[in-house]
Amino acid sequence: MKDEWLYSSASFVIYEIHVNVTMKRLDMELTKTLPIFPSMDLSNNQFCGKIQEDVGQLISLQMLNFSHNFIGPIPALFGNLVALESLDLSSNKLSGRIPSEMTKLTFLEVLNLPNNNLVGPIPHGYQFDTFDNDSYSGNLGLCGLPLSKQCVNHEGPNRLHHWWWNMKVLKYPSFGKL
Prior knowledge:
With 178 residues, the chain is mainly beta. It has one helix at 157-171, and strands at 2-8, 13-23, 26-36, 39-41, 63-65, 71-72, 86-88, 93-96, 110-112, 117-121, 141-143.
């Protein structure tokens, strides 16, 4: 089997794979052409609507630029894009949280999420611990490192503890020694 490179451009590569097969004493060479799209730049296309979940199936992508296009949440299936090295989702109207599944993107070197409507804590782990403030600027609802805005946990165990403690105090008020 030999691989042969046929054509390449900035975002499109074609390979031909040749396989020699002998069947019934007949030698044949089989050829298959494989298109490979390592990068996809669909920025500034005036797309409307949400990013399709199917994008999460493009596991060979290395660069994805969807800037200036979409609304809605970042699909959790982006965590499947394990070969991704660069992701630009800047200047959209994306909302909701950054999916924690995206921390699986261990090859990610460039993350651009500025100027969206993202909220909540920034996920931690692997490459996400290497990005700076510029990756998240213009998302006033985001919190946590590397931003200086700390997250306030309104739904965690501390609030439940305070609620339970307040109920006990109201139900059994202390009057000192009687």
